[in-house]
Design goal:
Structural class of chain A: mainly alpha
Order of helices and strands of chain A: HHHH
Strand order of the largest sheet of chain B: 3-2-1-4-5-6
Number of helices of chain A: 4
Strand content of chain A: under 5%
Number of helices of chain B: 17
Distance between the termini of chain B: 73 Å
Shape of chain B: elongated
Helix content of chain A: over 70%
Oligomer: heterodimer
Helix content of chain B: 55-70%
Radius of gyration of chain A: 20 Å
Radius of gyration of chain B: 25 Å
Number of strands of chain A: 0
Number of domains of chain B: 3
Distance between the termini of chain A: 60 Å
Order of helices and strands of chain B: HHHHHHHHHHHEHHEHEHEHEEH
């Protein structure tokens, strides 16, 4: 099991570099939607809570899992919805030739 | 089956990277939301389909509850987006914390083969980060929502940092002990102690931080929420959690760095520097005089200008003035006046807050200009209209070495030919600092609620000569 540490660390380091590279290019206009979308993305912890909630584990364990699943799901739903709602509002200057 | 799951996780990771990549311009950003949602859906379905999952009703119930709460949370007014974001960081934190707690007791009592130092080490990192993000974010959300029993001003006391540090050191020591001896008889007792300490630490970390520093704090908490997902990934040997968490962690980190740079402060200074207490001492000495201006006078000067820069701040959000600002923008544009918005990175209560509010009011994003770009043009600006901004236009940041905001880059409103500043009251701003700009020869004050003042300006302009 411990053998997984190094490969996982590799994945973490590489993913962090990709993250830094990609995020640095995100428009400053969109920093609020960026925060809400990354919030929804990090709710991927939902994967862990599904396993804890749905497996044949003792009741107390599954209860904790269910609360975690509820919390993650709330973030997923509200995170993606509100990001889209905000992004819909960003419009460029529709009237061409107005000002520079 | 394992192969399929792993393949689906790789697809999900790629989609997450695309989602963030598409956020680089408003033109493609909505595609990013679709990619992100698709990736999450894939990950959920594939995990759910695993044969070990037998209690389907539980999952359906929890997911349904998530929808019931999540949908209304996505419909909050945009002025409440900072507290919604803080609240969702709290949800993310508690989810990570609970999964970690559940896994620990499961392993301890039923699956001792998992109790390796590596797994338990990752697990305690997960719960430390998860629970401190939970209470810290709740405190931040409470401050932003201006909940009555959470003080808005920074709360400080003697030895605060030392007490926090000691608490954290105890938590880390317990975590280290449990990592080294995960099967020890005392481990199930030490574990709740770590939980309580990190819950407490989250609260103590946020109470000394004032509202003006919230953009940085929210970004840091964002990063912690991501890192707790990464730790969960290590503990559960799940690489999708590691990659998605790393993306979130780096996003929070970059935003926090941008916010700190925009205030010329370090992380340590934001977290442990307790702002807002220092300046009570000075300022009592001299009494400076504001020069008030009438709505009619201000409207006249606006009408005669060629280039107007509007500088919004948190006051615009508080007054919900963005739609009135849009009307003013329309009135000025109609007269052929160039109107730009100067956006300071820390204006408002979270990164990008002003942009979202102005976009909501249908102001084209092409007229929202970043601080560094607009500052070149400020000397050519006829009128700088400050709407509820304060510290981000305070020239003391350039000149006054004793000022707590000394060194912070500001929008050069004072270089405009005329400055109008809309201000609710004659009190200093959120950070409690006097603003020299308001006493400058070129500055005229418009006292009142931002929404009302701008509404009056619009009325004056639309009733005036320029119309026909």
């Amino acid at each position: 099991m411990t053998g997984d540490f190094w490969p996982t660390l590799y994945v973490f380091v590489l993913a962090s570099f990709i993250g830094l590279g990609v995020i640095r290019r995100v428009s400053r206009l969109l920093h609020t939607p960026l925060m809400s979308i990354t919030n929804a993305i990090s709710a991927i912890a939902v994967v862990g809570s599904i396993v804890v909630t749905g497996s044949d584990y003792p009741l107390a364990i599954r209860l904790m899992g269910a609360v975690a699943l509820f919390a993650s799901m709330t973030n997923i739903v509200s995170g993606f919805l509100i990001t889209d709602r905000m992004l819909k509002m960003f419009k460029s200057d529709q009237k061409p030739g107005s000002h520079s | 089956m394992v192969g399929l799951t792993q393949f689906a996780y790789i697809v999900a990771t790629s989609l997450f990277i695309f989602a963030l990549h598409w956020m680089n311009t408003p033109a493609t950003a909505r595609r990013g939301v679709f990619a992100g949602a698709a990736a999450t859906a894939i990950a959920v379905l594939v995990t759910w389909a695993q044969p070990a999952i037998v209690h389907h009703a539980w999952i359906v119930g929890a997911i349904a509850a998530g929808f019931v709460v999540g949908v209304p949370l996505s419909m909050v007014p945009l002025t409440a987006v900072p507290q919604r974001t803080a609240l969702s960081h709290a949800f993310g934190g508690v989810a990570a914390g609970l999964v970690g707690t559940a896994e620990f007791y499961l392993w301890y009592h039923h699956e001792p083969e998992n109790l390796t130092s590596f797994h338990v080490g990752a697990l305690v990192c997960e719960i430390l980060l998860g629970y401190l993000t939970f209470t810290g974010s709740l405190m931040a959300a409470g401050k932003l929502q201006e909940v009555k029993w959470i003080p808005q001003r920074p709360v400080t006391y003697r030895g605060q940092n030392i007490i926090n540090l000691i608490l954290f050191a105890i938590a880390v020591a317990l975590a280290a002990a449990i990592t080294l001896r995960p099967t020890a008889a005392w481990a199930p007792m030490a574990f709740p102690a770590i939980v309580v300490l990190s819950l407490l630490f989250g609260v103590l970390l946020i109470i000394p931080i004032g509202g003006a520093d919230m953009p940085t704090v929210i970004a840091i908490l964002n990063s912690y929420a991501g890192l707790s997902a990464v730790a969960m990934g290590f503990a559960l040997d799940n690489k999708l959690l590691v990659t998605a968490g790393a993306l979130d962690g780096s996003s929070g980190l970059i935003l926090a760095i941008i916010m700190c740079k925009a205030m010329n402060r370090s992380f340590a200074n934001v977290l442990f520097g307790a702002f807002g207490q220092v300046q009570a001492a000075k300022g009592a000495g001299e009494t400076k005089v504001y020069k008030p201006e009438t709505i009619e006078g201000a409207a006249q000067i606006l009408e005669q200008s060629n280039f107007v820069v509007i500088i919004p701040g948190y006051g615009m959000a508080v007054a919900q003035a963005q739609h009135k600002v849009r009307e003013l923008y329309d009135q000025l544009k109609k007269r052929g006046i160039t109107v730009k918005f100067a956006i300071h990175p820390v204006a408002g209560r979270m990164p990008g807050h002003m942009n979202v509010l102005l976009a909501e009011a249908d102001i084209p994003y092409t007229d929202l200009v970043e601080m560094d770009d607009i500052n070149h043009d400020m000397p050519q600006c006829d009128v700088a209209l400050v709407v509820g901004a304060n510290d981000v236009v305070n020239p003391a940041a350039r000149t006054d070495k004793t000022s707590p905001i000394y060194g912070m880059p500001i929008i050069d409103a004072d270089k405009a030919r005329t400055v109008f500043a809309i201000k609710r009251s004659k009190n200093p701003g959120f950070a409690g600092i006097d603003n020299e700009l308001y006493f400058s020869d070129r500055t005229w004050m418009l006292f009142g609620d931002a929404k009302n003042v701008i509404g009056e300006l619009v009325k004056e302009l639309s009733g005036g000569s320029g119309m026909h």
